[in-house]
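Is this the right way to post structure tokens for a design question? Let me know if I should format differently. Anyway, here goes:
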């Protein structure tokens, strides 16, 4: 639009006759006014586009931060559950393992699992990860 209106303004800059000068002067004023409005609208559009781009960047950053927090919590829970999963997977196999025939093996295994989970929770708290 800006280039089309600019072409019209330049077209009426050099009139040929005296009668055409009067008509062209009115048209030139009109087209310059229209050109000014077009330039202002383009500036507003650029400004609003920049504002929209900035707002979208802020929104995407907030979503990424929230996703990072969720992933941090899930990772911490996975770290707490890891020793439990390792110990229960060893004693879930059909092979002979230490303390398998001991009547207190379940109690010892449960205490080891609780102690390892508590140790990991304490470590996480000291590092201020949670």
């Amino acid at each position: 639009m800006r280039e089309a209106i600019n072409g019209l303004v330049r077209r009426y800059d050099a009139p040929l006759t005296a009668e055409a000068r009067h008509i062209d002067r009115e048209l030139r004023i009109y087209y310059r006014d229209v050109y000014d409005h077009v330039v202002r609208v383009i500036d507003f559009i650029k400004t609003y586009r920049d504002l929209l781009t900035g707002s979208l960047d802020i929104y995407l950053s907030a979503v990424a931060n929230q996703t990072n927090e969720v992933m941090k919590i899930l990772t911490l829970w996975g770290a707490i559950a890891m020793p439990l999963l390792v110990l229960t997977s060893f004693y879930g196999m059909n092979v002979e393992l230490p303390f398998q025939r001991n009547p207190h093996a379940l109690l010892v295994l449960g205490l080891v699992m609780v102690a390892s989970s508590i140790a990991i929770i304490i470590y996480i708290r000291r590092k201020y990860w949670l």
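Format looks fine. Someone answered above. Worth noting: Residues 2-126 form a domain with the Methane Monooxygenase Hydroxylase; Chain G, domain 1 fold (CATH 1.20.58.340). The CA atoms of residues 22 and 127 lie 83 Å apart.
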